[in-house]
Amino acid sequence: MHCESIVMVAQPQSDILRQSDPEKLHRLRHSVSHILAMAVQKLYPETKVTIGPAIENGFYYDFDRTEGFTPDDLKRIEKEMRRIVQQKLPMERVEVPREEMRERLVALGEPYKLEIFEGFDPMVPVTLYKTGEWWDLCAGPHVESTSEINPQAFKLRSVSGSYWRGDQSKQQLQRIYGTAWETPAQLEEFLRREEEAKKRDHRKLGKELGLFTFSDLVGPGLPLWTPKGTILRYTLEEFLRKEQVKRGYQQVVTPHIARVDLFKTSGHWFKYKEDMFPLMNTSEDGTGEEGFVMKPMNCPFHIQIYKSELHSYRELPIRYAEFGTVYRYEQSGELGGLTRVRGFTQDDSHLFVTPDQLEDEFKKVVDLIQFVFKALQLDEGFSARLSFRDPTSDKYMGSDEIWEKAESAIRKAALDMGIPHFEALGEAAFYGPKLDFLFRDALGREWQLGTVQVDYNLPERFELEYVSEDGSRKRPVMIHRAPFGSLERLIGILIEHYAGDFPLWLAPVQVRILPIKDSVFGYCEALKDRLIGLGMRVEVDTSAESLKKKIRNAELGKIPVMVIVGEKEAAENTANLRVRGKENQEELTVDALIAYLSERIEKRI
RNA sequence: GCCGAUGUGGCUCAGGGGUAGAGCAUUCGAUUCGUAAUCGAACGGUCGCGAGUUCGAAUCUCGCCAUCGGCUCCA
Fold first, then answer.
1. Which of A202, A281, A334, A526 is most deeply buried (CB count within 10 A of its CB)?
2. Pairing of β A538-540 and β A511-515
3. Same domain? A188 vs A305
C-alpha cells in the first residue's frame, strides 16, 4: 500500500486533478481571488485591496486591514463569495484611458492599486475587470461570468501575514489563501490528498517511529536524535564516508567554536552576522568584539588545515571532508521539523584545486552527488538550480571577472553532464555561485539538499597558495560541496520520500522475529544472535500478545522484515519470512534467510 | 522577526468558572495463540510557564515560551 502511494506521486498526470486545462484553471483561480476581494470589501468596506494572484492549487489575496481576519471571518467571507458567484455576474474587461484610470483609482481610494498603476509601462493599455458593481485594476484574463465558477469547488483555507511587495520594511498585509477547482470532486480529491500527504509529514512520522525529538529546555530548532534515528544518521554517514574515501577524500575534524577573528577574516562576521549565534565575549571588560562564536560554516576551519603546511601543485586537488555540525541563528518563525533547524550537520567538504583542475573536479563532485541520490532513490525527484548572483546587487564579495569565470564553469559542467537544470539569478551565496539540488517534501514545499559551490573569494581572503610547476606561488580555487546538504534535512526528506518505510539497509530495525509461543523463545534468541553477529539490526518480540498483534505492531513500526517462528520452524531450523506490506509468506532455511537479507542490504534495496 | 491559529497524562483527542475524562501505549495478572488489535486490573496529568480577575481558574484577561500555517530569510 505504501508502494502504491509512491507510484501515485510519481504519475500525477493520470489523475482527476490534472484533467483540467492548466490555463483554464489559472483563469478560474484568478477570478475566484477577485470574488474574494469583492466579498471582503463588501463585508469589511474599510479594507484596501492589493494583489491577488492564482497560485499552485489555488489563489491568495493580500489585504490591508488593521484587524486580522479570524477563522469565523473566513466562513463569513466564503459564504458571501458563494452568494456573489451564484448571481451569475459577468466579469467584464474594460480598457480605460490612463488619465481616467488614475482618476478612478484616486476616487476609489485604493493607494496600493494606484501604486501598481503608476509603475506600469505608459505604452501598454490599462484594463480593469468589472464584476457587478465592483471593479479591480487587472490585466486578466478572467472567466467570462461567475457562472463558470462552481460555488462548491472552492474553499478559503488560512490567513497569514505578508508584506507589501514582499518587503519586510513595508506595510504588513493580511493574506487569505484559498483553493479552487473546476468541480467539487476535484476539491474533495485535493483535500483528501493533502490529508494523505500530512500522514507522511516527517514531523509526524519521526515522532511515531521514535526517530528524533525536541525539548523546550534544549531549545527550538535543536533536534535530539534517539537511538533509532541515530542509526539512520550513522548508516548514511558511513555510506558516504566510504564512497568519499574511494574517491580520494581525506577526513578531518574541527571544533564547534572559534575565535570571531576567524570569521572576520572569512568575511562571515560582516556578511552573515545576523544568522550567527551571538558572540561569547571573553575580553577583559566584556566589551568590543573579542571572543568566540559558534561556527555557522566549516570552510574557514578546513582552510586553516590547508594553511598549516605548504602545498605543491602535485598534491592538488586536496579534498578535506567532515561531517561538521554548524549553528545558525534562524529567525524563530522559520524553524520547522528537521528541514529548518538551528544546529545541523553538513556532509561538508572543501576541495582545493588549481584553476586548470576546476572543471574536471566540479564534474567529479556532481557525479558523486548523482551516485548518492541514486542510492537513496531520490534521483527522480530532483531538479538542479544554477544559483547565480543578481548582477544588480552589491551584496557579493569579489570582482565581476571572478564571478563570471565561476558561473560559466558551473554552467558548462551542468550542460556537459546533461543534468536537468535551470538558472536562478540572485540565489548565489555571497562568496560564490552554486549548483543546488532541490527536492519537494510531502506537502509540496521545495527544499535544497546537495550543493556545490565554486569559491574564488575565500582563497583570496585567506591568501591561500600552492607552489606551481615553475616554483612560483599561485592561488588555488575552492569548491564547497555537500551531497546530503545536511543530515537533518536529508533524513526529513527521506522519511517523507519513503513514507517511513525505509529500505532494509537504512531501517533502524531491520528484522523482527515473532515467536508464536513461549516455547520457541530460545530458538528465536539464537537466530537473533546469529543475525546480529552478521551486523544486522534484529529484535525478538517476546510480548505476551497474539501473533496477529505482533504482526500488526511490526507493520505499524514499519519494520521491513518479519520472521515468524513456531514449533515447525524451531524443529526444522527454518524461518517464516513475511515482508512489510506484503501478506504472502515464505518458508526459508535459516541460511536462505541470511542470503536474502545480506543481498538486499548489500544492494541497498 | 512579523501576521494568524494552537498548547489537557508517553501518543491521539474529549471536556470547559466549583475537587481532571476516553482510547492507545506502559505495568501487573490471566491467555500460548500460525500471519494486521485476546481478556481483566492498575499506574499515570499542579490541563505549556508566569501574573491578574474571582469566594473559587484547566476554563476568563494579560505577558512569556513552544508548535503549526504563512510572510521575510536559508542547508
1. A202
2. parallel
3. no
Q: CA-to-C1' distance for A216 and B64, Å?
A: 13
Catalytic residue list contains A350 = yes
Active-site option among A268, A480, A528, A550: A480
The active-site residue out of A233, A268, A328, A481 is A328
Catalytic-role residue among A348, A441, A501, A541? A348
Task: From A167, A199, A231, give the residue that closes a domain.
Answer: A199
Alpha carbon A140 to chain centroid distance?
A: 33
Residue A46 falls inside a structural domain: yes
Task: Note whether A519 and A592 are same-domain residues.
Answer: yes
Flag whether A359 is in a domain: yes
Q: Kindly indicate the confidence band of residue A2, based on its pLDDT and cuts at 50, 70 and 90.
A: very low
Cα dihedral: A501, A505, A507, A512 (round 10): 100
Are A195 and A216 found together in one domain?
no
| A216 CA from B51 C1′ (Å) | 21
Across A162-176, b (16+ Cβ under 10 Å) vs e yields bebeeeeeeeebbbb
Q: What is the pLDDT of residue A229?
A: 96
Domain span including residue A184: 12-199
Nucleotides of B under 7 A from a protein CB: 1-5, 11-12, 26, 29-38, 65-75
Q: Which residue has the cell 476539491?
A: A187
Tens of pLDDT along A411-428? Answer: 988 888 888 889 988 888
- Identify the pLDDT of residue A93: 87
Q: What is the value of ipTM here, to two decimals?
A: 0.94
Q: Is the pLDDT of residue A165 over 80?
A: yes
Bridge partners (DSSP) of residue A155 are A179
Span CA (A217) to C1' (B8), Å? 20
pLDDT tens for A115-137 read 888 887 777 778 888 888 888 88
In a domain, A265, yes or no: no
Helices and strands in chain A, H and E counts: 19, 28
Q: Catalytic site residue A340? A: no
